[in-house]
């Protein structure tokens, strides 16, 4: 899911606090338990409320759902960990859970999984493995997954003389940008109506940018910006494997080539300036007609299709020299170590990861459930609505996905690399120079 790191509060070291006492946001006695459950995506409240109602009917355990926006979610969660009042269960992210495990603020669930014979093979390949810590213990069951693709304004595409096939079959390389660079040039229009591929285009007075994406310095994975392009050159973030690698390769020339290309596109006026990416945001820019094409995660599909008056379609990312690739991320639900109701919390976590609940999630068609049969439910719902999201699923069919980095100290790494990415996209420093300096900081953070 969407990442934004700059104002995030560090995970507190709660082990000593947890040893001293245990309490929970949950309430009730043994016969009337209410679990507190937190999530960050407001678009998913209806399906999880439906799941909670069914769960209560079956178990007698009540569930109170609380939603916070992404930034506030992690800030509030960390505060509650420190105060020993964290919710009984909460939606967890791969970027954060290694620190939660390290600080002993979430419970391992492997004994519950084994006792109840939960079938880990029912989920998409690789998703269940992501939630096994370095200690060999399990800390979550898969609930959904996501990949990255392109949302485009089909009216703007047609006005530029481009077709669906042009975008679906686009190629990219960091030297001349392939056909993808031509596409975003043609989609870029200055205030005088001149397109980016025409003489006289003014990159300082752009009315519509060809391409936009989430703030690229938000995550050291480059999840919704440069990461997938670099992977199509053969770049791998961790030299010693993922999950749990520590040997980052930010000084790899292939990453420098990728980010230099993005910097050139910003300077050319084909890509939204960094100030807008960090301010208004790419979805708002797309909605306003200031952007024709946007790199986005599958979790944001409904944010685009819900835009009134804009015809939106989707396409996979362009094919690079070593293929078309997308980062592959998954979420799970975690149990707080301070819960007063671990057994009931486990029942809720197990239910959230079950086909019964994931079918409800699939039917609402907001995200992709972790169980293939539940995804089919979602695909049928989208088909009835006339929505084609195969741009996001094509990577699984071709097995061209790579895992979101699961490693410790990722927030600190992101801060170091994010500053370097900012310098590159602002044109203040060549990518190789900025990334070499960032790599030195990262090596220090990782104790290498």
General description of the model:
The chain has 448 residues and is of the alpha/beta class. It has helices at residues 15-20, 45-59, 70-82, 97-102, 110-115, 154-159, 164-168, 178-187, 227-231, 253-268, 274-278, 282-287, 301-305, 342-352, 355-364, 372-384, 390-398, 410-425, 431-445, and strands spanning 34-39, 62-67, 89-92, 142-146, 148-153, 189-190, 206-212, 291-297, 312-315, 326-335, 368-369, 401-403. It folds into 2 domains: 15-146 and 329-392, 3-Layer(aba) Sandwich (D-Maltodextrin-Binding Protein, domain 2), CATH 3.40.190.10; 148-327 and 407-445, Periplasmic binding protein-like II (D-Maltodextrin-Binding Protein, domain 2), CATH 3.40.190. Strands 1, 2, 3, 4, 10, 11 and 12 form a 7-stranded mixed sheet that branches. Helix 2 runs antiparallel to helix 15 and helix 18 packs antiparallel against helix 19. The chain starts with 14 loop residues before the first helix and ends with a helix. Mean pLDDT is 92; it is low at 1-24. It comes from Micromonospora zingiberis. Belongs to the bacterial solute-binding protein 1 family. It holds the Pfam family SBP_bac_8.
Instruction: Output the CATH class name of the largest domain.
Output: Alpha Beta
How can the largest sheet be summarized?
A: 7 strands, mixed
Count up the helices: 19
User: Unreliable segments (pLDDT under 50, ≥5 consecutive)?
Assistant: 1-24
Radius of gyration: 22 Å
The secondary-structure class comes to: alpha/beta
The percentage of residues in β strands lies in: 5-15%
Helical residue percent? Answer: 25-40%
Mean pLDDT: 92
The backbone outline, from C-alpha atoms, is: globular
CATH superfamily of the largest domain: Periplasmic binding protein-like II
Question: What's the CATH architecture name of the largest domain?
Answer: 3-Layer(aba) Sandwich
